[in-house]
Amino acid sequence: MDEDLIPGLGSTQRDDSDEEIEITAAEVLEKLQEAWNNEKFSPELLESKSDLLECMLDQIKGMEKNLERVKQKNLVATFHKLEIDRIRYVLSSYLRTRLQKIEKHVVHILEQEASRDADEPSRLSPEELQYAKEYADNMESLFKSLVLQHMPPNMQSIDRKKSVPRPNLDSYVFFKVLEDQEQVMIDPEEQPIDLEKGAQHIMRYSAVAPLLANGSIALL
């Protein structure tokens, strides 16, 4: 991304210790693309990256304002417009992927949210949590009105916890190692292995999910 059209060249983002850190627009975009790929290829819903989304939306607004001030619509301005469109696509695809997962595994996700510890970060943004609750309630109401009310009285109740669709955490994923990892337990029946930075592997998601959560690997 050419940062000449981006005001301030940077944004602030909070890290895990709740401290503000400086981050450039290019770094925000790189992190957003990584989060997008991780979300696309992960079988389960990952932690929301709402801070990245807000940072990137602010950068887009600044870029669009600068483009409006460009009097001559030359080739460079056209390329910047295409770049903005590309970023918007990444943003919308990321959010759409998350909504699809929420709708597919809404009961499971709400169970996780209800059982998580107070110091454990939520996987849902406040807006996503509200959407998940409303979606689950609406689906239950629809099922009752279309099906259950026509069933015998002893079969008109519904238990959300029975036959809940859950993500397949044993599916295989392709990933790249971002940081050296030693003695990683891939299979209880096998010896731990070392993962070298830059190496690429295919393994069960359940074995490497903790590494994905702490940013040691990226899905491809």
Automatic annotation (TrEMBL):
Cell compartments where the protein resides: Chromosome; Nucleus
Function comment: The GINS complex plays an essential role in the initiation of DNA replication.
Organism classification: Eukaryota, Metazoa, Cnidaria, Anthozoa, Hexacorallia
Pfam families the record matches: Sld5, SLD5_C
Entry keyword Cytoplasm: no
Any one GO biological process: double-strand break repair via break-induced replication
Top-level taxon of the source organism: Eukaryota
The name this protein goes by in its record: DNA replication complex GINS protein SLD5
One GO cellular component, as annotated: GINS complex
The keyword Nucleus belongs to this UniProt entry's keyword annotation: yes
Family: Belongs to the GINS4/SLD5 family.
Annotated ranges, domain DNA replication complex GINS protein SLD5 C-terminal: 167-220
Keywords assigned by UniProt, alphabetized: Chromosome, DNA replication, Nucleus
